[in-house]
Amino acid sequence: MGVGYTFASMVRAAGGGERFQYASDQSLLVYFDTPKSESRAQARPLQSRITLQANEKVRRLLRLLELEPAAGVRNLHPAYCSLLIKFDPLRMEHDKLEAILRGYLERLDEANLPEPQHVEIPVCYGGEFGPDLAEVCAMRGITEAQAIELHASVEYLVYFLGFVPGFAYLGELSKELVTPRLTAPRKRVPAGSVGIAGNQTGVYPFATPGGWRLLGRTPVKMFRAESDGLSLLSIGDRVRFAPISAERFVELERACA
Amino acid sequence: MRVIDVQAPGLLTTIQDLGREGFGPLGVSPSGAADAISLRLGNRLVGNAEGAAGLEMTLLGGTFGFPEGAGLALSGSDFGATLDGKPVELWTAFEAKPGQVLRMGPTRSGARCYLCVRGGIEVKAFLGSTSTHILSGLGGHEGRALKKGDVLTIGPASMDGQKRTGRNACSTGGAGMVGRRRLAAQVLEKVKIRKVLRVTSGPQSDWFPESAQKIFYESTYRVAEESNRMGIRLQGVAIPTASSGEMISEGVALGAIQVPEGGLPIILFVEQQTTGGYPKIANVISADFHSLGQLRPRDEIRFERVDWETARALFVEQEKLLASEELFLE
Predict the structure, then answer these.
(1) Between β-strands B196-201 and B300-305, what pairing exists: parallel, antiparallel or unpaired?
(2) Strand partners for A210
(3) Which end of chain B is more exposed for a tag (fewer CB within 10 A), N or C?
(4) Tens of pLDDT along A56-83?
(5) Chain B residue with minimal CA distance to A11?
(6) What string of H, E and C letters represents the secondary structure of chain A?
(7) What whole-number percentage of chain B has pLDDT above 90?
(8) Do B94 and B72 touch, CB atoms closer than 8 A?
(9) How far apart are CA B146 and CA B12, in angstroms?
């Protein structure tokens, strides 16, 4: 199981546990708290490698780069413990960007993270809206009522938005609910579906393919092109799910339409 | 108000510009023309700014009526276009007289053909861009591919465009005559579509043992039918990945080549997911992105690794060419 360096694989460690990695000829990845040696076989389980501290650093660097944009930077893709920075290759180079980012990294503590919104998302669990609820319960040896209680009793952090517009990666799921994603992803998951995968949970904003196990559905629109806020959730927000009846789902669906 | 009547939409025709950058934190990928070079050149042929909204047609073109006429250009792949039955040349500006109909058929070369219209297509921008993001139903014309009966509005010709054409559009006819401006043949040669795609190492290159890299770089892959603007799926020899361990999801770059379980690579494309959890063995270089946009199902491709300096130099050279004033013959 050699980790051996491949031709032109560019990796450099920064000062505070950060690591830079060329991702493409117009993008650079910054990793927090994920040592290079920890690849594949010797890696700890996924859950324990996603730390709140690393994600907070991601959010701080993102905030600094949003408040004080660096010339030549075109896009930012935050994730659990990394930030992908896309740049205009005519105006910026990897090395130059690294040097600029080191300056930002030294000032991470100065970044004032925005006050998180606390958002409650109504969910109708089980039945046709949550086709995987029964199987998750069988896998984990719990009742449907227990599963709903476990899912709805936790306040989740929005680690980042990714995949498709407005899809929030929420954590951390109760250990009792942790299940692997479906081996064969669905070709079409209905919009509003609430799913779980590993120790994550999230809501599908659009009808897309997806491999997460579906526990329920929300009538709330997660992403509205016509509204100023666009996405119901932002990175760093706190989220709770509130169980609702099928009748209430229909009422809210009408109100949201 | 001049319009385009969509008499037949073709297989998948959408409004595209150069995409919306900067909304990664919302999970919104840029979208935009799959072959951006063709859209840029097509726009310049009709005297538009290069990022004006045009129509991107896929594999099978549409039929479009111009009740009040329009200045037009077709770029990208040859879809066998005719104007009122007479063949129309690619890469050459032409004029549709009021009532004329432009008809396209199946492709005779690559996957996409662009129709650019003098003045651009006027449509409400979403997050600063008119590009259609099909998966999420955002941008473009009602967030979707065109349908028969759609009516698109042609925008006013820009002052910038008039300057670029070096003539005053108003004095040559209000419908936007642009002369017979055409692309110099040597330009096409320099940006021709490649089937050997050049790549740089991916962020997880070293997760793949030498034997896996050898397979990736020495095999010929075939573009799968289910490829689309989100991702180009490949068929061929599976690339072995390490048996255990799972990656933490991270931001993914345009042109990233990810290797999911099963080992068949997927090239992430313009409507890509913004983050992903599969290891990436390589990344297509920026100078070859437009070639990705012209790949058709069943096309055979290979990968060739270049170093970072080469990738950058090729892109800089390409942009220099596209910025030059000697692209066109009037």
Answers:
(1) parallel
(2) A186
(3) N
(4) 999 999 999 999 999 999 999 999 999 9
(5) B203
(6) CCCCCCCCCCEEECCCCEEEEEEECCEEEEEECCCCCCCHHHCCCHHHHCCHHHHHHHHHHHHHHHHCCCCCEEEEEECCCEEEEEECCCCCCHHHHHHHHHHHHHCHHHCCCCCCCEEEEEEEECCCCCCCHHHHHHHHCCCHHHHHHHHHCCCEEEEEECCCCCCEEEECCCHHHCECCCCCCEEEECCCEEEEEECEEEECCCCEEECCEEEEECCCCCECCCCCCCECCCCCCEEEEEECCHHHHHHHHHHHC
(7) 85
(8) yes
(9) 7
Q: What's the pLDDT at A181?
A: 86
Q: Which amino acid is at B233?
A: R
Domain extents in chain B: 3-182, 196-325
B220 shares contact with chain A (CB less than 8 Å): no
CB contact under 8 A, A8 and B319: no
List, in order of start, the domains of chain A with CATH numbers. Answer: 11-110 (3.30.1360.40), 118-256 (2.40.100.10)
Max Cα-Cα span within chain A: 60
Judged by a CB distance cut-off of 8 A, whether residue A25 touches chain B is yes
**A191-243 confidence digits (pLDDT tens):** 999 999 999 999 999 999 999 999 999 999 999 887 767 999 999 999 999 99
Paired tokens of A152: 């709805």
User: Average of pLDDT values for B174-196?
Assistant: 82
State which residue of chain B sits closest to A230, comparing Cα positions.
Answer: B26
Beta-carbon separation of B206 and A9 below 8 A = yes
**Core vs surface per residue B56-83: b (16+ CB within 10 A) or e:** bbbbbbbbbbbebbbbbbbbbbbbebeb
What tokens were used for B212? Answer: 């896996």
| pLDDT reading at B242 higher than 90 | no
Taking only residues 74 to 103 of chain B, the set having a beta carbon closer than 8 angstroms to any beta carbon of chain A reads none
Helix (H/G/I), strand (E/B), else coil: B316 = helix
Contact A39 B319 (CB under 8 A): no
Contacts of B255 in chain A (CB under 8 A): 24
Buried b (16+ CB within 10 A) or exposed e, A115-151: ebeebebbbbbbeebbbbbeebbeebebebeebbebb
- Residue B15 DSSP SS3: strand
Whether A202 contacts chain B with CB within 8 A: no
Superfamily of domain B196-325: Cyclophilin-like (2.40.100.10)
Minimal-distance CA residue of chain A relative to B273? A163
pLDDT band at residue A1 under the 50/70/90 scheme:
very low
A27: its two tokens: 């993008």
Task: Kindly state whether B21 is in contact with chain A, defined as any CB-CB distance less than 8 angstroms.
Answer: yes
How far A64 CA sits from the closest chain B CA (Å)? Answer: 13
User: Are B27 and A2 within 8 A, CB to CB?
Assistant: no
Each residue's pLDDT tens digit, A106-160:
999 999 999 999 999 999 999 999 999 999 999 999 999 999 999 999 999 999 9
Residues of A in contact with B216 (CB under 8 A): none
Q: What are phi and psi of A67, to 5 degrees?
A: -75, -35
- Which pair of tokens denotes residue B134? 């099909």
Contacts of A1 in chain B (CB under 8 A): 242
Report how many Cβ contacts below 8 Å link chain A to chain B: 185
